[in-house]
Task: structure prediction
Amino acid sequence: MKVRIVSKSKHALPEYSTAFSAGMDLRANIDAPVVLKPLQRALIPTGLFIELPKGYEAQIRPRSGLALKKGISVLNTPGTIDADYRGEVGIILVNLSDEDFVVNDGERVCQMVIAKHETVSWEQVDTLEETERGAGGFGHTGKS
Result:
């Protein structure tokens, strides 16, 4: 699938790391390092603007290595970029560790996954079909 992109970034376009990768790494496009103190969040620009086809979204997700090794995640995960959004792709990073984290220009800060979605039309009814699970949730099945 082709997606139109405007890049005002100093870095290469996002690309897949391996043949079976679902996400493409996005890089910080900043003029100076950004220091994230513990529990601090910041909007990190990418310099990228995309035009998705109708019926698709871009999902912004954390990078597993940054999350595990440094405690860095993406708030509002997964973040959604709608097909009609034309602004710059910005990444809301949060530092969940107990140490400062420095975001440098060109650093891979998240993954972007392009996904198809459906548009729903509601059918209002008085009852729902019964299932074995019913209304049970939030750990209702116990430990196995």
Observations:
- Helices lie at 64-70.
- The two ends are 43 Å apart (CA to CA).
